[in-house]
Amino acid sequence: MDARHHLNSYVAANSHLNAYPPVQGGRGARNAVASYFRRRRIDADPQLCLTAPGSKAILYGLLASLPGDVVLARPSWVSYAAQAGSLGKRTVWCDIPAATGGIPDPDLLPEVLEQARRDGRDPRILILTSPDNPTGTVARADQLHRLAQIAVDHDLTVISDEIYRDLAYDPDEYTSIAEIIPDRTVVTSGLSKSLALGGWRLGVARFPATAEGEALYDRLIALASELWSGTPILLEAVVEYAFSEPADVVERVAQSRRLHGAVSQAIFRILRSAGASVRPPAGAFYLYPTFAGSALAERLGVHTDVELEDALLSTERIGALPGSSFGDRPERLGLRLVTSMVYGRSDAERLATLRATDPLQAEPVRSALEAISAAFSPVDM
Ligand SMILES: Cc1ncc(COP(=O)(O)O)c(C=O)c1O
C-alpha cells in the first residue's frame, strides 16, 4: 500500500471526528506535552499546556496578550520583530554575546533596557531562542542565570522559544531559563524542526503555574478561540505520540541531531578557514558567518549583506539570507546559511543521508561541501 492509500484510509476511518477540538488541545496531548517538559526538568501542569497549529501562532498570541515592547537578540529569527511590529509593539534590539546567539548579551542588556526607557519605550517581554536561528548556537547556563536575574530586576516576562531544543548537539549540556525562573517564563516548542514536520503545523507551549501565568494562558486561549479554534483533531494524536517520545521518535531525532551536527561542523571549518567570523555551531542547522573586512568581501567588492548575498548567488550559486533580515546591521556582512540544503534533492536522497553511517560521505553532502569550499576558499581570492 502506498502512503496516499494509508492516508486516505486514516482520514476515512476518522471522518466522524468532525466536532471542533478543544481550543487548548485535547487532554492526552497536553498530558504528553507536560511530561515532555518535566523530563527536561521544566515544571509543567497539563492544565497550563496547550497545543496549536504551529508555535508561530502561539508566539503571536503571546505578544498580543502581553503588554509592553519586545526585547530581541540581534540577530534573531525574522518573525519575532515582524509579529511585534504588526501588533504596534516596538523592538528593543540588544547584540548577542561573542560566542553564542539567540540571547541578548547579559553584559549589555541592563544598559540597553535603561536606554530604551529613556527613549520612551516600555520593554516588558524578552524572547530567547536556544538553539537559535540564525546562529545555530546554544545559550550557556551561566548566561541564562544572568539573564534570569535581569528579567527579575526589570520585571520582564520571558518567552523561551525551544523549538530547536532537541537538536542541541549535546543534550546533556542544555539548560532552559524555565529551570531558573519557571514563574516568569513561557516555553514554546513544536514538531517543525526536530521531526521536520513544519507543514503539519503543530506547536505547543507551557505556562507558569502562577496567577499571572494562568491569566496569560486564559487570554491566549480566548484569542486562539477567535483565531484558530484549536489544533486539527486528526493531528492531536501526532502531538500525543511525538511528545510521549517512543523509541522510534527518539531514534529519528537522534539521527537528525547527528546529521545536522556533522554537516554544521564541516561547514563551520570551511567558513573559518575562509576568514569569516563565525560562532561554533552547537545546535539546529544554521550558521551565521559575518564577512566584514574579509578577503571575500574585498574580492566581491561588496559593502552590504544584501550585496554579498546577491554576489554569492550569482557567482557561486550559494543561497543565503542576509543578516539584515534578522535585524543585524548590513555592514557586518552577515549571512544565514541553512545546512539542511545540502542533504539531497529528493526525499529518498535525504533519507539515505539521514541514515548514512558517515553523513559527510553521503554523495549529496560530499559534493555540496566541495562546492561550498570552492566558493569560499581563500585560494580563489
Ligand atoms: C526560532 C523559530 N521559532 C519558531 C519557528 C516556527 O515554528 P512553527 O513551525 O512551530 O510555527 C521557526 C521556524 O523557522 C524558528 O526558526
Provide structural commentary.
The protein is α/β, with parallel strands linked by helices. It folds into two domains: 19-244, Aspartate Aminotransferase, domain 2; 248-380, Aspartate Aminotransferase, domain 1 (Alpha-Beta Complex), CATH 3.90.1150.10. The protein contains 14 helices and ten strands. The strands form two sheets. The chain has a seven-stranded mixed beta sheet with strand order 1-7-6-5-4-2-3, with helices on both faces. The chain has a three-stranded antiparallel beta sheet with strand order 8-10-9, with helices on one face. Strand 5, helix 7 (177-180) and strand 6 form a beta-alpha-beta unit. The longest helix is centred in the last third of the chain and has 27 residues, at 247-273. The relative contact order is 0.13. The model has no long low-confidence stretch (mean pLDDT 95).
Nutshell version of this structure?
The chain is α/β, with parallel strands linked by helices. The chain contains 14 helices and 10 strands.
